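Follow-up to my earlier ticket, as requested here are the two runs.
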Amino acid sequence: MDGSEGLGLLAGLLTTMAFVPQVVKTWRTRRAHDFSLPMLVMFVAGVAFWLIYGLITNARPIVYANAMTLCLASFILLVKLRRG
């Protein structure tokens, strides 16, 4: 692993972990009413495209970070769609 890949992994870790408190709150309350539905849909789509880009370019930090973020954001989106 070179320095740029390490930097990418650190950046991905931090941005992905920033989402965890929101997932924990959503899990506990079983509600996502504070989230905008259009924002969540666009965010999940954007993260999915970043994941595809990372897979195509074989960029491990992009793949790892966006795969995890996609799971976290999709959970919040699903709660939003089910319960508001």
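Run two:
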Amino acid sequence: MKHLHYNLIFQPEPEGGFTVIVPALPGCITFGSTLEEAKSMAIDAIQGYLASLKKHNEPIPSDKASFISSIEIPQTTHA
């Protein structure tokens, strides 16, 4: 069975829970009250998105060759 790879961005929300964004799938965004629920909701959202792409004979993108990294930039203050 072929596996597809997708990067997920989890953003904590001020009121609680996490918004999940799937960068390779534009508009594929979901939410979960916990990290575990957010990941489960992301899997469900990705599967629905892929089913729609397949139904419309659209190409299936993947993040297999990409990755997410982060950097810290010093904050500058203005006088």
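The only thing I checked on run two: The first strand starts at residue 9 and ends at 12. Let me know what else you need.
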